[in-house]
Amino acid sequence: MSLELWYWPEIPGRGEFIRLFCAAGEIDYVDMARVENADALVEHMHALEGMRPFAPPYIVDGDVVIGQTPLILQYLSDREGLGSGEMEVDLKLFQLQMDIADFVQEVHSVHHPIASELHYADQMAEAFDRAQNFRANRLPKYLIHFDNALAANGGPFSLGQQWSHVDTSLFQVMEGLDYMFPNYMAAMQGSWPYLEGLQGAVPEIDGLADYLASEERIEFNENGIFRHYEELDEQ
């Protein structure tokens, strides 16, 4: 039975972190809602019993059903032997993946600072203030943290020459920020040399180049997490 990924079919979102890892690791999976549709995702999720995932993305691997992006990536990494092989190191990778998840939530809160249920147009003034603070304080704090983590083993990856789920996720973060804040990221170029080096190294991982060039790679858009609104990128 093929590994099933259940996530919204028209946005990269959190599901893209899993797609990238699977492509890099040449892990076969079926992107179920893209084969079927979003209604099928909702129906499938509500039909799950017991301690089911709160929200997509989640995977189904035989009898195993797992939600939460960091946990999914850790599970697949262990299953495929794509970790370091040392518990202490793998826990540190998982810690970094949790940091990435926290950062992604803050990214989403830039354009939805009041409530996810409200449209961006209903909270633009608050989003403008949030974006200014995010660019000045939160974004550089996180990127310095991630850059230092890569520097610890000399780069280009978190384990040095061996890539991990952290690296494919940080690649998505940097690509997303380039889309969301092109003016800011261009102005800050050179500030995070290890992250910029990783951004060039990840596409060279066997199996990933084909995915990035394919129609399977969903482009960033204004329905996802990393959204470009010109007024939020003013310098």
Assign a percent range to the helix content: 40-55%
- Tell me the name of the CATH class of the largest domain: Mainly Alpha
Number of strands: 4
CATH topology of the largest domain: Glutathione S-transferase Yfyf (Class Pi), Chain A, domain 2
What's the average pLDDT?
96
Enumerate the spans where pLDDT stays under 50 for 5 or more consecutive residues: none
For the sheet with most strands, the description reads: 4 strands, mixed
Q: Estimate nothing, just give the exact number of structural domains.
A: 2
- Number of helices in the DSSP assignment: 10
N-to-C CA distance: 51 Å
Strand order of the largest sheet: 2-1-3-4
Using the CA coordinates, give the radius of gyration. 18 Å
| 3D shape | globular
By CATH, the architecture of the largest domain is named Up-down Bundle
Q: Which structural class is indicated by helix and strand composition?
A: alpha+beta
Which strand-content bin applies to the residues? 5-15%
Could you characterize the architecture of this molecule?
It contains ten helices and four strands. The protein is 53% helix and 6% strand. Strand 3 (58-61) and strand 4 (64-67) form a beta hairpin. By secondary structure, the chain is of the alpha+beta class. Helix 1 (15-24) crosses helix 7 (165-180).
Structural topology:
Elements lengths: L2 E4 L8 H10 L4 E3 H4 L2 H10 L10 E4 L2 E4 L1 H12 L6 H25 L12 H28 L13 H16 L1 H6 L5 H9 L6 H5 L23
Parallel strand pairs: 1-2
Antiparallel strand pairs: 1-3, 3-4
Helix pairs in contact: 1-4, 1-7, 4-5, 5-6, 5-7, 6-9, 7-9
